[in-house]
Design brief:
The complex is a heterodimer of chains A (about 180) and B (about 140).
Chain A: H1 10-26, H2 35-43, H3 61-80, H4 90-100, H5 112-115, H6 123-143, H7 147-156, H8 160-184
Chain B: H1 4-19, H2 25-32, H3 38-59, H4 80-96, H5 100-108, H6 114-131
Classes of the chains: A mainly alpha (about 180), B mainly alpha (about 140).
């Protein structure tokens, strides 16, 4: 039964992601995992602060249901379908250990050095997670979409703005990993 | 009851994100180091099938099940918002090691500190709403 716990290869995962996008299109919606953040802000009254949040958020409640489902899916997969380890390129794992003291590659799903409760005692770590999230939320709305909305939905529809956004995603990601990580870790 | 389908779609999506390891910090780091084909294979194969499927939908003029219009309207034109917004997003994606979909998946998987990232993302979304009119688009 070990195969149940094996990760899915890219040629299974990628097509299944495309399938999710098509299912959403055929129920009259579009695939995008960040607009729910705007819906959530509107639902808790952010409309008082900005007209950006004054829209019929109740019509967008469906994307909050997708979010709830994604959480349930994560629960099911981690508890019943995975041994919660991720094998990466041994050279990358070695580099993480040598440069950043992150030695959990191959034995964890997320590095406990950053994501375990113990890591809360490090204020820098709290800052990393909060600011990382902040940049994701701000950037996704500024760019009008995230990985799913631009890199999958938008590029599938051959949208030039999505190509520009995806190039931006990679510029930002490469700057962070290659120039900023060595400064903060 | 009409929301049930979205819950099922979300569960399906969550399992895919977790099992593909696209929700793993390690995979995102490895991707930006160009040390593995895995993430590029996921995005690339989704994209190839996505492009083919969207072309078929358009050429056959297919409609959603309820007879409405497909949500395939063109994005607003522009460069600045997509480039700057994209770069800001990319910085955060690599810093937190998670983009919006996987954040929720990881919360469900029991990683409590991901809630800090989700809180940050809500804050960032709110901040954009406040600053929107002052930003170049």
């Amino acid at each position: 039964m070990n195969w149940i716990f094996e990760p899915w290869p890219w040629y299974i995962s990628g097509p299944l992601i495309a399938l999710v996008m098509f299912i959403l299109l055929f129920v009259g919606k579009q695939f995008g995992m960040s607009s729910n953040l705007r819906t959530a802000c509107a639902a808790v009254g952010a409309g008082k602060a900005s007209d950006f949040f004054r829209f019929d958020w109740k019509a967008e409640r469906w994307n909050l249901m997708v979010v709830l489902g994604a959480m349930i899916g994560g629960f099911i997969a981690s508890n019943y379908l995975s041994d919660n380890t991720v094998e990466i390129n041994p050279e990358t794992a070695e580099q993480l250990a040598v440069d950043y003291d992150i030695t959990s590659a191959g034995s964890a799903y997320l590095p406990p050095e950053i994501f375990s409760i113990d890591a809360l005692s490090n204020p820098l770590n709290i800052g990393i997670l909060l600011i990382g999230g902040l940049l994701v939320g701000f950037g996704a709305r500024y760019a009008g979409g995230c990985t799913s909305g631009h890199a999958i939905s938008g590029l599938s529809n051959l949208q030039l703005p999505s190509l520009i956004a995806v190039i931006g995603f990679f510029i930002g990601g490469l700057i962070m990993i290659h120039f900023i990580y060595p400064l903060i870790f | 009851m009409k929301y049930f389908i979205y819950l099922v779609i979300g569960i399906f999506f969550g399992i895919i994100m977790f099992k593909s390891e696209a929700a793993s910090w390690f995979r995102i780091y490895e991707m930006f180091q160009f040390d593995s084909f895995h993430m590029y294979g996921i995005i690339g194969s989704a994209l190839v099938l996505g492009i083919i499927g969207v072309q078929i939908i358009k050429r056959k003029n297919m409609k959603p099940l309820d007879g409405s219009e497909m949500s395939l309207s063109p994005k607003d034109r522009g460069v600045v918002r997509y480039l700057f917004g994209g770069i800001i997003f990319g910085l955060g994606w690599a810093l937190a090691g998670a983009c919006p979909g996987p954040m929720y998946v990881l919360a469900g998987a029991g990683f409590s500190l991901i809630l800090l990232v989700i809180f940050g993302a809500l804050l960032g979304t709110f901040l954009y709403g406040i600053l929107k009119d002052k930003l170049p688009h």
